[in-house]
Design goal:
By secondary structure, this protein is mostly helical. The protein has one domain (2-142): Four Helix Bundle (Hemerythrin (Met), subunit A) (Up-down Bundle). The protein contains 3 helices and 2 strands; from the N terminus they run ααββα. It has helices at 2-55, 58-92, 121-142; strands spanning 95-97, 104-106. Strand 1 and strand 2 (104-106) form a beta hairpin. The radius of gyration is 22 Å and the shape is elongated.
């Protein structure tokens, strides 16, 4: 009887862990989608600034150039935040990218399924070490 209870308890714990993983990944994906929308708006504003610059005379062109530079910085920042979220999603889902071919594989795999490269345990440590940095970036994104 205690074996059955232990099996049920283990099953319940595993199910809860998987549900938590799916929830965390979903929240990260929602954040990434919001950032992608922000990026779309920034690109639209950049396009408008370029259009204005092309239509303006030389005196007004300098102001638009400054606006374009500022929008470019914003776009670069948004792209970096999206990349950080994508890395975090991979980590939450237990995935890592092969350093040779860029294929996404499970962390527990010893070899890349695409190119066959041996995936060192060092890469798992690197992902864990970067987790705090990613968490900090996540806090900045959501605030």
């Amino acid at each position: 009887m205690s074996d059955i209870i232990a099996a049920i308890k283990e099953f319940t714990e595993n199910t809860a862990k998987k549900a938590d993983t799916v929830y965390r990944a979903s929240m990260l994906k929602l954040s990434a989608a919001a950032l992608a929308k922000m990026l779309e708006i920034q690109y639209r504003e950049l396009g408008l600034a370029v259009y204005k610059m092309c239509k303006s005379d030389e005196n007004n062109g300098k102001e638009e150039c400054e606006e374009i530079a500022a929008l470019t910085v914003q776009i670069d920042g948004t792209r970096k935040r999206i990349a950080a979220l994508e890395k975090r999603i991979e980590y939450v889902m237990g995935l890592v990218r092969c350093p040779d071919c860029g294929n996404t594989v499970k962390m527990r795999n010893a070899y890349c399924s695409a190119c066959g490269r041996r995936l060192a345990a060092e890469e798992e440590k690197r992902v864990e070490e970067n987790e705090n940095q990613i968490e900090d970036q996540m806090l900045k994104i959501t605030n």
